[in-house]
Amino acid sequence: MTPEERARETIDELLRYAGWDVQDREAMNLYDPNRPGVAVREAHLRTGFADYLLFVDGRALGIIEAKKEGTPLVGVEAQSVRYSVGLPPRMQAWRPDDPLPFLYESTGVETYFTNRLDPLPRSRPIFAFHRPETLREWVREDATLRGRLQTMPPLDAEGLWDPQAVAISNL
User: Fold this and answer.
1) 11, 66 contact by CB (below 8 A)
2) Number of domains comprising the chain
3) Tens digits of residue pLDDT in 111-123
4) Given the DSSP bridges, would you call strands 48-56 and 111-115 parallel, antiparallel or unpaired?
5) Is residue 160 part of a domain?
6) 153 burial via Cβ count (<10 Å: 0-12, 13-18, 19+)
7) Residues 6 or more apart from 131 whose CB is under 8 A from it?
8) Measuring CA to CA, which residue among 36, 47, 29, 39 is closest to residue 63?
């Protein structure tokens, strides 16, 4: 087994643990009512082959780019971004006029995640893949948590010590 195959085997297991139905492209069935989340291996896109294309309720919303263990994931996000805009016209997306919002890069040991719905999207390490229900909830929201935090009213610092006001302002 090659290092890439080992990584994909581990990623398959992690996806299943998070509630995803992992399927091969040739046997793809996006509409099982008992499994809202489907991760399709080796999905053909207009911009190449994504290692996994994530669907919830039959609509695409994410990409996973798999790399062999030990590969630095820092520069891999650009590849995920390229795939996020390559959805074929026959596939339905949650946000038809936008790129796919949820990007993952993973070695099976280390996983990074980008929520492109955030005001300033950035890749960050996570401990596990998100559940399909979580991504469904996030894609339906008007604003992400980070977006809502940017619209908080100014802090009323009356009665606070300066270090307290600084600490709260830096949240």
Assistant:
1) yes
2) 1
3) 999 999 999 898 9
4) unpaired
5) no
6) exposed
7) 18, 19, 37
8) 39
Q: What is the mean pLDDT of the chain?
A: 91
* Phi, psi (degrees; rounded to nearest 5) at 130: -75, 150
Residue 60 φ/ψ, nearest 5 degrees: -75, 140
Identify whether 147 is part of a domain. Answer: no
| Phi-psi region at 114: left, alpha or beta (left = phi > 0; alpha = psi -120 to 50) | beta
**Residue 163 domain flag:** no
Residue 91 lies in a domain: yes
- Distance between start and end Cα atoms, the chain: 46
Domain containing 16: what range? 3-142
Cα separation of 17 and 13, whole Å? 6
